[in-house]
Design goal:
Blueprint: H1 2-21, H2 28-38, H3 42-47, E1 54-58, H4 63-76, E2 81-83, H5 91-101, E3 112-116, H6 122-125, E4 133-136, H7 144-147, H8 150-161, E5 168-172, H9 176-185, E6 189-194, E7 220-227, E8 230-235, E9 247-254, E10 258-262, E11 265-269, H10 275-289, H11 297-303, E12 312-316, E13 319-325, H12 329-340, E14 346-351, E15 378-384, H13 388-396, E16 403-404, H14 408-418, E17 422-427, H15 429-445
Helix pairs in contact: 1-2, 2-5, 4-10, 4-11, 8-9
Length: about 450
């Protein structure tokens, strides 16, 4: 069995290198697929070699950022960590993370694992190993043609969580859907959240998913919202309400950077977007829940470089470019809020695809508050990608003019040459890797 595992590791490493250097593709998915083909038990065998804790990160939005941040925080505590940094979060991607982290001997030298898993893929991954901790970020409506309604995802996750009854669930207590799921599944729960009102959300046109109690079906009452369905809630008919928060962020400040206090410790980061408070708080709660002091957490945040298109910054021929993923209404609305925090003139490029991994149904675009871009100090807005015409129509309905350039490379080049020097590129899922590759290539040519 060890020989077979060693051959699987070799095959995975070779496949990944060939994919990247010859075919200029990410290669992680193929590496994992080949590893599992050569040694079907490789994931079980390598996961069993993790000396301490296995963390998994699930949820609709924020998985990749939270998972990479958690990995960096664990490494700052002196741990050797297995992590699927690229965001390949289905079974093949998870298998690849372990196989590529193993040595040529086929053995793994790791204290911890920090693994992002697609919610729908948990059912395929959990038979191979049982995590010690699950970080549950949030549950929003996402790709209805792939996932269906949120109830389907919740039922699937509940079933999976109950196969690992000792797994501790570190849950966003401000999300009524996530909190109910964690409580209903019966796993030990640890909560994080923000108990004070931070932003005035009363005029928002966002679609609220948590309007009815998942326990009894009655209308939920919210004392305030942070965004989408996240906030301070209680059922009007039964005892279900926002749980007591174990890791509670207070004195939250957002703007060019963000900061908050938790456990008497001031946490600061040079990131935009209120949603990043939750990402950081989730990673902090995970490290602390595992018994670590997190003494180096602020230093980690100062050194942490968001990659893979999550508020990733590029500088190309005098233009600052921020690339960010926006793949569903809740995520896109938070992207818009982050753009609005920048009061200087800016150009915008919105790239929308409808490949299988995006979900071919793009009706979700009509649930995004694009009308807010009227006040964004936007010099220009360009729509691109396979469904650029749909995106242009969506903007037309809120009287926002846009330029059309289906080719992403041409769209970016045009804004670099004739833009204002401050460019935001917002992309959905399958547009992300290609757009990032274009930006990396341009950055290398400067």
């Amino acid at each position: 069995m060890k020989l077979r595992r060693m051959l699987a590791v070799w095959a995975a490493k070779c496949a990944e290198k060939v994919s990247v250097h010859v075919f200029h593709r990410q290669g992680v998915t193929w590496a994992g697929k080949i590893a599992l083909k050569v040694c079907p038990d490789i994931l079980s065998e390598l996961a069993a070699q993790v000396r301490e804790d296995i963390f998994i990160v699930c949820g609709t939005n924020g998985k990749t950022t939270t998972n990479n941040m958690l990995c960096a925080a664990l490494e700052a505590e002196g741990k050797k960590v297995v992590c699927n940094h690229t965001g390949s979060n289905m079974l093949n991607g998870v298998a690849a993370a372990f196989a590529l982290a193993a040595g040529w001997s086929g053995n793994l030298d790791a204290d911890c694992a920090s693994i992002e898993i697609d919610e729908a893929s948990t059912k395929r991954v959990f038979p191979y190993f049982k995590p010690d901790y699950m970080v549950l970020t949030n549950l929003f409506r996402d790709q209805l043609d792939r996932y269906g309604e949120i109830d389907i995802t919740m039922n699937l996750l509940k079933e999976v969580m109950q196969t690992a009854p000792e797994m501790k669930v570190i849950v966003n207590g401000d999300d009524a859907l996530s909190a109910f799921l964690a409580i209903d599944a019966g796993n030990p729960c640890i909560t994080y959240g923000i108990s004070e009102k931070v932003v005035d959300d009363k005029d928002s046109h966002e679609i609220r998913e948590g309007r009815f109690c998942k326990k009894c079906g009655a209308l939920m009452h919210y004392n305030f919202y942070h965004y989408s369905q996240l906030g301070d809630y209680e059922c009007t008919a039964c005892e279900f309400k926002r749980p007591e928060i174990n890791f509670d962020a207070s004195e939250v400040q957002i703007g060019e950077g963000l900061s908050f206090t938790v456990e008497g410790r001031r946490i600061s980061a040079e990131y935009k977007g209120f949603y990043n408070v939750y990402n950081i708080l989730a990673a902090y709660a995970a490290v602390r829940s595992a018994g670590m002091e997190a003494e180096h957490f602020n230093r980690m945040l100062a050194d942490f470089n968001p990659e893979n298109g999550r508020m990733e910054t590029f500088y190309i021929r005098g233009t600052k470019i921020i690339l960010n993923l926006a793949k569903n209404p809740a995520g896109f609305n938070q992207n818009i809020s982050a753009v609005m925090q920048d009061s200087t003139p800016k150009d915008l490029i919105i790239v929308i695809n409808d490949n299988a991994q995006d979900g071919t149904d793009i009706s979700w675009l009509w649930d995004v508050d694009f009308d807010r871009f009227k006040d964004a100090e936007a010099n220009t807005i360009t729509v691109s990608g396979i469904r650029c015409q749909d995106m242009r129509l969506r903007l037309k309905y809120v009287d926002i003019p846009s330029m059309l350039e289906a080719d992403v490379t041409k769209a970016i080049s045009e804004r670099i040459e004739n833009g204002c020097g401050n460019l935001y590129v917002l992309v959905n899922y399958t547009a992300l890797f290609g757009t990032r590759t274009v930006l990396k290539k341009m950055e290398g040519q400067k």
